[in-house]
Amino acid sequence: MSKVSVLRKVGDVYREHAIVRVLAVVLGIAFLYYLPLLGVPGLTILRTDYSSGGSNWAGVLFLCAVYVLIAIGLNVVIGLAGLLDLGYVGFFAIGAYSVALFGSRQSPVVKSLQEQFDLSSDWAVAWAVCIPISIAFTMVSGVILGWPTLRLRGDYLAIVTLGFGEIIRIVARNSKFTNGNQGVSAIPGPQGAPSADNDIFGLLDIKPWYWLALTVLIVVVIGVRRLEHSRVGRAWLAIREDEDAAVVMGVNAFKWKLWAFAIGAAVGGLSGFLFASRSGFIDPTGFDVNLSILFVAMVVIGGSGNMAGAALGAILLTYLPERFRGFSEWRPLAFGLAMVLVMLLRPQGLIPSTRRKRELKDRAEEVPAGV
């Protein structure tokens, strides 16, 4: 068999595999869009009495989509660039407050603008316009945080970012322009403020909200995947593996770490934007440090550096607590035991990246010094 025939045969096999992969992706996405309509006993969480702490299956799916979006953004910072960020909830809060302060007619910011420019009492910034505002605010926040702190490494960087998350929460709690502990209500969605007239994006039927969040998630996944396999992604991986060696090879470590912070912050702000739009009300108590630790746990348990792993970790840590609400008093114990077991049995995560798996394997095979 000639070389030309072999190459043609290899090309045909590659094309067949590519077609199969595309079909699998299309079918998987179609299944995700069908999930809110799925009813499987023991798996789906059906609508129950909300006053008794019940959950809505579509509502849980929406929360899973938002948290997967958060995990993917944080995976850019932790998994790709190797920067431990313990204050990611701060970006989540900034994104949520962006749509609340500029889109809600009840917010002090909108009321101040109405008085200053003699606007109608019904005026507020349109929901669609709040999207770039939210992304811009969170990206600028990421740059402001990263510019003076990214020269730090390891535990020092983690402590600084942890303080950033707490600063955002305390400012939101004590500032007049955020309405303090009273929070902000009447946060708009695509059809305006929460109302019985909203026939699509209302308060009871959450399926459209899930489909919206899933669409945003797919767009972000495509964008982050392209970044990961570009020059930017290779620079992040080089910095994560050995920052000093990357600098010697000509990589501007500070620049690319700042980009990682900005892009991760933008994704976190977008998730907060969706969360606030669906909730219709936010207050500072919903953005405490425990939530930030949960975000990090999603990435670490799922598999740092791998988007599929981060997504799986977010789904598990969102779905399981909702599925077993009857055992809520045991939730902290179960969560702690799960973390210990995963770190002992799967330190690389449930679905680790190929590179991370090789790193841990090489370390395990190293011969201890002096033996």
From TrEMBL:
Predominant location category: membrane
Which organism is this protein's natural source?
Virgisporangium ochraceum
**Which CDD domains does the record associate with it?**
TM_PBP1_LivM_like
Record's superkingdom?
Bacteria
Q: Which terms are listed as keywords in the entry? A: Cell membrane, Membrane, Transmembrane, Transmembrane helix
Is the keyword Cell membrane in the record?
A: yes
Where in or outside the cell it occurs: the entry states:
Cell membrane
Read off the InterPro entries from this record: ABC_transp_permease, LivM-like
Q: What kind of membrane protein is this, topologically?
A: Multi-pass membrane protein
Q: Which GO terms describe its molecular function?
A: branched-chain amino acid transmembrane transporter activity
Q: What name does the UniProt record give this protein?
A: Branched-chain amino acid ABC transporter permease
Q: Does the keyword Transport apply?
A: no
This protein's GO CC annotations: plasma membrane
What residue ranges are annotated as transmembrane? Answer: 18-37, 57-79, 86-104, 124-147, 154-172, 209-227, 258-281, 293-320
